[in-house]
Design a protein that fits this description.
The structure holds 2 protein chains of 2 kinds.
Chain A: H1 29-63, E1 66-67, E2 75-76, H2 80-87, H3 89-121, H4 126-141, H5 144-154, H6 161-168, H7 180-208, H8 212-220, H9 225-253, H10 257-262, H11 274-284, H12 288-316
Antiparallel strand pairs in A: 1-2
Helix pairs in contact in A: 1-12, 2-12, 3-7, 3-9, 4-7, 7-9, 9-12, 11-12
Chain B: H1 8-30, E1 47-52, H2 58-71, E2 77-82, H3 87-99, E3 106-110, H4 111-120, H5 126-131, H6 133-142, H7 145-149, E4 152-153, E5 156-157, E6 161-166, E7 168-172, H8 173-178, H9 190-202, E8 209-211, H10 222-227, E9 233-237, H11 242-248, H12 251-254, E10 261-266, H13 271-285, H14 300-305, E11 309-314, H15 317-324, E12 332-335, E13 346-354, H16 361-371, H17 374-380, E14 387-388, H18 396-400, H19 409-415, E15 421-422, H20 429-443, H21 450-466
Classes of the chains: A mainly alpha, B alpha/beta.
GO cellular component, one term (chain A): plasma membrane
Subcellular location (chain A): Cell membrane
Main location (chain A): membrane
Chain lengths: ~325, ~475
């Protein structure tokens, strides 16, 4: 898109020489029309955001101050739901699990995606590159629940293909989904397997946007292999890395399907996540107020983590 | 706003925008679009019945709708088969419908939800049962009182049971032969059971598990607790119910009956509960049984039918399931759950609950009666996907082609062991079940974990039972 297609709707900036600063700025009829048109185009999106995002957020906030079991009318609870949440060991464990999951899953997801993006972006026939891109992205378009059902069979301790294959090389069956030590690892593996395709595509796009001249100049200066990636590619890829990290973190903090289907949060609470607790509290135990309080806390956590990422990005992200 | 800057051209353009927007709005308004009234059965005067989707396929729905139409052509009926993975998921979806103001008139409810629905949502059927006593006498004569009692709450009857499943033991014939073991006797003990598992393990390879079980309220740890003469929650009977027992059952069958079960004080730290968990932990340690796996045992049919599992607890529903999986009638059989201190077994039953919000309660009662009729159930349960609540339906003919040989076990679990009872499902069942599954997982990680995990289970159960639903 060129600049000529985007009309400048900003009012002409008044300068001290041409007009006094307090003088009202009169828009031309054309500018007013353009502004109206822009508003009309934006309206559906704004209405959508208000109806489907703002209203539910406010609704959750209000509901978190009430006791409500769907059947009876809501009763005022004040901060009782929040007090309950902070003393409920299941909720606290779920927050810990979610944070652990987020850190490990996002790190692994980015590492795999970046490594594969660099590999695919290297010397490789175009058709093979397309095959890899499609193959790595494919799991993302599948339903997480369906994938988890299949993975549950594969990871079954007694009858799963994974343990059968390990048995061929003499490794004893691993209780992937039934041991507190390995269940989280299995959930992370399944999640990362499905999700890394998105980061991979972002990285491939980001790598393609790095001018070849910079790499050539680095090569002329004697940079090779890993050093070139660390000191040239990564800094130039940092804006993409930021986007991939932010999106990855937000998604990971809301993980639900994989632990729900694979382990149902167990063994014990070892893979119970915050969104699972919200679902169970609301739709299984009919405690919508407490579920909303947990939802509000998760919202605050996501906002805080995202804000922190953007703040830290000032030091690590380099824009060309 | 002044009009000094509005040129003719601008005016025409705005006019065109306005006309375009009006045309769009007009077109949109004139389109046929979905409204609340388009939801099947809503606001069209139909009696809406919500059933568990996976258990009610198109054929079953047709059987119910067409059969009911013949009997009551004046009542429009709509079956809403709600897709859900298990009862807990099903109830969650029904409650969401209630919250959305689209509550059905009747809901198919299993033992897991009987007391929850009775306490908060259901209508007692007492007045209709009393009114139509003559018509119902044949039904009650055919249905074991334990099933009926499991549908009572605080003296009133909330459902007429149409099906049930007790946790009996299925045995794979091929595995028994491989182990050179005979079919167990009806009064086999826990020690006989353990020895059989050991024999099976010795005669099979590493990809074989003698005993498979699923960690859930029905058929998980609970059958072992019952066999050991204990329960997760202290069990008692509510007073009342004499109006029903005196009216429909002979004195021998009335003995000890009350107004429904009460499950109150948690007793996870009871010595016998600990002993039951310790036994299961020892089986796991000896590699004789699987670690508790959550879910609904979807993969079990496959591994059982291919001889990779020897024994598993299941109900009459499995006869149809194994047949569909290709197992021949003689390749599996069923026996009672083994005796420990007792041979009391556990079951879950299901029937239709009438919701308080229904404006068609009399019509709903007619459907409840229709759904419990013998001819209806004969057509509905043709494929043996469950155990019919009516004793007369369990015949040699029914099981001749699909097995098992000892099909009588299904109903004799009630007839020969009259203390057999429902799984513990108080109104707080969702939380109780979650606590049970959660701590069972950790309790059975090793024998040392049993005690601490059961103490945590006790604490969480106490908290769950204190809560109002």
């Amino acid at each position: 898109m060129t600049n000529t297609q985007v009309p400048d709707v900003r009012p002409p900036r008044a300068t001290a020489a041409s007009a006094p600063p307090e003088a009202p700025v009169r828009l031309s009829a054309r500018d007013r029309g353009t502004r109206l048109l822009a508003t009309l185009f934006l309206a559906p999106t704004i209405v959508g955001i208000v109806v489907f995002t703002v209203v539910p957020i406010v609704g959750s906030l209000v509901l978190s101050l009430f006791h409500w079991n769907v059947i009876d009318s809501p009763r005022w609870a004040g901060a009782a739901n929040y007090r309950e949440v902070f003393t409920d060991s299941t909720v606290l464990v779920s927050f810990r699990n979610t944070l652990v999951f987020m850190v490990l899953a996002v790190a692994l997801q980015l590492l795999i995606a970046l490594t594969l993006a660099l590999a695919v972006n290297g010397r490789m026939p175009m058709w093979l590159r397309s095959v890899f891109r499609s193959a790595f992205f494919f799991p993302l378009v599948l339903s997480a629940a369906s994938i988890s059902v299949v993975m549950k069979y594969l990871f079954n301790q007694d009858f799963g293909v994974v343990n059968w294959a390990l048995g061929l090389i003499g490794i004893a069956p691993v209780p992937w989904l039934t041991s507190e030590n390995s269940a989280m690892a299995a959930v992370i593996l399944v999640y990362v397997w499905q999700q890394f395709g998105f980061s991979f595509l972002l990285f491939v796009g980001g790598l393609n946007n790095i001018p070849k001249e910079i790499h050539e100049a680095a090569s002329l200066d004697g940079a090779t292999g890993l050093r070139k990636h660390l000191h040239v590619t990564l800094p130039l890829l940092s804006p993409t890395l930021l986007v991939a990290t932010v999106v990855g973190v937000i998604n990971a903090l809301q993980v639900f399907e994989q632990p729900y289907v694979l382990t149902d949060g167990g063994p014990g609470d070892s893979t119970r996540t915050v969104v699972m607790v919200i679902y169970e509290s609301a739709f299984e135990q009919l405690r919508f107020g407490e579920a909303s309080a947990v939802g509000v806390l998760l919202f605050v956590l996501i906002m805080a983590v995202t804000a922190l990422q953007f703040r830290l990005s000032r030091r690590f992200v380099h824009y060309q | 706003m002044t009009d000094s800057h509005v040129t003719r051209r601008t005016l025409l353009r705005y006019g065109a925008y306005g006309a375009g927007a009006a045309a769009l709005a007009g077109t949109a308004a004139s389109w046929d679009r979905l409204t609340g009234a388009d939801i099947p059965g809503r606001d069209d005067g139909s009696l809406v019945v919500a059933t568990l989707g996976p258990a009610y396929g198109p054929e079953a729905i047709r059987t119910l709708t067409e059969g009911f139409k013949k009997v009551h052509p004046d009542i429009k009926l709509r079956i809403n088969a709600v897709q859900a993975t298990d009862w807990s998921d099903f109830f969650a979806k029904i409650l969401t419908q209630i919250a959305a103001g689209t509550a059905p008139d009747l809901v198919y409810v299993a033992t897991e939800g009987v007391q929850l629905f009775a306490q908060r949502l259901g209508v007692a059927l007492d007045k209709w049962v009393k009114r139509d006593a003559a018509e119902l006498r044949e039904y009650f004569a055919d249905v074991h009182p334990s099933l009926v009692e499991s549908m009572m709450y605080e003296g009133s009857l909330y459902q007429l049971p149409v099906e049930f499943n007790a946790a009996d033991m299925y045995l794979n014939d091929q595995v028994l032969k491989r182990a050179a073991a005979g079919f167990p006797a009806a009064d086999w003990t826990r020690d006989d059971f353990t020895e059989l598992l050991r024999d099976m393990k010795k005669s099979s390879g590493s990809q074989f598990t003698p005993y498979f079980w699923t960690n859930r309220l029905w058929g998980g740890v609970v059958p072992w607790l019952f066999a050991n003469g204990t329960n997760l929650l202290a069990e008692s009977k509510a007073p009342g119910g004499a109006w029903l027992w005196d009216g429909f059952y002979p004195s021998a069958e009335r003995q000890g009956r009350g107004g429904g079960f009460r499950w109150t004080t948690p007793q996870a730290t009871d010595a016998r509960v600990e002993e039951s968990y310790d036994y299961l932990a020892s089986l796991i340690q000896e590699d004789l049984c699987t670690r508790p796996e959550g879910g609904n045992g979807q993969n079990l049919i496959g591994v059982f039918s291919t001889g990779r599992v020897g024994v598993t607890p299941a109900g009459g529903f499995w006869a149809g399931g194994l047949h569909l999986a290709g197992m021949e009638p003689g390749s599996f059989d069923v026996q009672y759950f083994p005796r420990w201190r007792t041979q009391r077994m556990q079951f879950g039953a299901a029937g239709y609950a009438l919701l308080r919000t229904s404006k068609m309660q009399d019509e709903a009662w007619e459907f409840i009666k229709f759904a419990a009729r013998r001819d209806t159930l004969m057509r509905l349960f043709e494929t043996n996907q469950t155990t019919p609540a009516r004793r007369s339906m369990l015949t040699a003919d029914r099981y001749r082609e699909i097995g098992p040989r000892h099909w009588q076990v299904f109903y004799d679990t009630l007839d020969k062991f009259p203390d057999t009872g429902p799984i513990p499902a108080p109104p707080q069942v969702a939380e109780v079940e979650q606590v049970l599954l959660k701590h069972t997982g950790t309790a059975l990680s090793s024998r040392r974990s049993v005690g601490p995990a059961l103490r945590r289970m006790q604490r969480d159960l106490e908290k769950a039972m204190e809560r109002d639903v």
